[in-house]
Design goal:
Blueprint lengths: L25 E5 L5 H10 L5 E5 L11 H16 L5 E4 L2 H14 L4 E2 L2 H11 L4 E6 L1 H6 L1 H7 L6 E6 L3 H6 L6 H11 L9 E5 L7 H8 L4 E4 H15 L12 E5 L3 H12 L6 E3 L6
Parallel strand pairs: 1-2, 1-3, 2-9, 3-4, 5-6, 5-7, 7-8, 9-10
Helix pairs in contact: 1-10, 2-3, 4-6, 4-10, 8-9
The structure holds D-glutamic acid.
C-alpha cells in the first residue's frame, strides 16, 4: 500500500504490491453490523471464498454525515482492506456506494463492487406495477442514487423514497423483533401504505437485519429487495469473468475487524449469522 501521490494520479491512490490472486480473500466493509447481510449472502453464494470483514463501529453512523466525510472514511476503510491483499472489495454499505463508489474505484486497483446497481436491477425486475419504494439513510436518499439507477433501467417508474435513520441503531442493538423496532418501522413506513408500491428496496444493509418486522408492517403483497443478496450474484459473475474464483481445496478463512465495541459486534454478528465467529480483532484505521 502506498499513499504517495504522483503526477497524473488521482489523490489517495491505494496501491497493493502484488497482482490479484484467485486464492486471496474478498474484502467487505460497512460502518457496522449491516454489512453482515452482504457477508452472509456472499458466504452462501460463494462458499469456497475466504472473506475479510471490516465494520467501522467507532464512526457509525455514516448515513448522517457529509459526502466529504463519508468519502474520507470509505477511503480509509478501503486502504485497510486492500492492505490485506484482497482480490476484490465489496462496499457492503449503501451510503458509501451512493456517494463514494466512484472515488473508491479511482483509488483502488482491485475491482470495487457496490450495492446500488445490483439492488436497482433486482427491484426493477421484481416490480409488476412500476411503483417502487426506497428506504435508506439520509445520505443515500439525498444522493438520489437509487432513483437514477432505476430510472435508467425502466421508463415510467414511480419511485417513492424515505430516509429511516433510526433503523440503523436498532439493528446495531440487535433489536430484530423488539416492539420499539415495530413502532419505529410503522412510523416510517406508514406513508408507503397509500402509495400502492409492490416493491420496497431495503437501501441500507442494516435493514435486512430487521426484515421480519419491515415485512410485517408492509404486508406480504410488497416484495422486499435485499441489495446484499443482489450484489452476491454480481460478485460471483465478476470473479468468474476475471478468472478470480478461489480454486484451493484448503478450507476457506474468515477474519472480522472492527474499530470499536467488539463485544457488542460479536453478540449481534453471532446472532445474525447463527454461529460463533472465531476471529475478531479491534483495529485502528490509518488516517489519510
Ligand atoms: N449500513 C449502511 C448503509 O447501507 C450505513 C448505516 C450508517 O452507518 O448510517 O447505508
Amino acid at each position: 500500500m502506498d499513499f504517495n501521490r504522483q503526477e497524473n494520479e488521482p489523490p489517495f491512490t491505494i496501491r497493493h504490491s502484488s497482482p490479484a490472486n484467485a486464492d486471496a480473500p474478498i474484502g467487505i466493509f460497512d460502518s457496522g453490523v449491516g454489512g453482515l447481510t452482504v457477508f452472509r449472502a456472499l458466504e452462501k453464494r460463494l462458499p469456497n471464498e475466504s472473506l475479510i470483514y471490516l465494520g467501522d463501529t467507532a464512526r457509525i453512523p455514516y448515513g448522517t454525515r457529509s459526502k466529504e466525510t463519508i468519502e474520507r472514511y470509505a477511503l480509509e476503510d478501503a486502504a485497510f482492506i486492500q492492505a490485506k491483499n484482497v482480490k476484490a472489495i465489496v462496499i457492503a454499505c449503501n451510503t458509501v456506494s451512493s456517494v463514494a463508489a466512484h472515488r473508491l474505484r479511482e483509488a483502488c486497483e482491485v475491482p470495487v463492487l457496490g450495492v446500488i446497481g445490483p439492488g436497482s436491477r433486482r427491484a426493477v425486475q421484481q416490480s409488476r406495477n412500476g411503483r417502487v419504494g426506497v428506504i435508506g439513510t439520509e445520505a443515500t436518499i439525498a444522493s438520489g442514487a437509487y432513483e437514477k439507477a432505476m430510472m435508467s433501467l425502466r421508463d415510467g417508474l414511480k419511485i417513492i423514497s424515505r430516509a429511516c435513520p433510526l433503523l440503523v441503531p436498532l439493528a446495531e442493538e440487535g433489536w430484530m423483533e423488539h416492539p420499539v423496532t415495530r413502532q419505529v418501522a410503522t412510523e416510517y413506513l406508514e406513508d408507503f401504505r397509500h402509495t400502492e408500491i409492490d416493491t420496497l428496496v431495503l437501501g441500507c444493509t442494516h435493514y435486512p437485519i430487521l426484515k421480519n418486522v419491515i415485512q410485517q408492517v408492509m404486508g406480504d403483497a410488497v416484495s422486499l429487495i435485499d441489495s446484499g443478496e443482489a450484489v452476491a450474484d454480481v460478485v460471483a459473475e465478476r470473479l468468474c469473468a476475471e478468472g478470480l474464483m478461489r480454486q484451493s481445496a484448503a478450507p476457506r478463512s474468515e477474519q472480522f475487524y472492527v474499530t470499536d465495541s467488539a463485544r457488542r459486534f460479536r453478540k449481534v454478528a453471532e446472532y445474525f449469522l447463527g454461529r460463533p465467529i472465531e476471529s475478531l480483532e479491534t483495529i485502528e484505521l490509518g488516517q489519510l
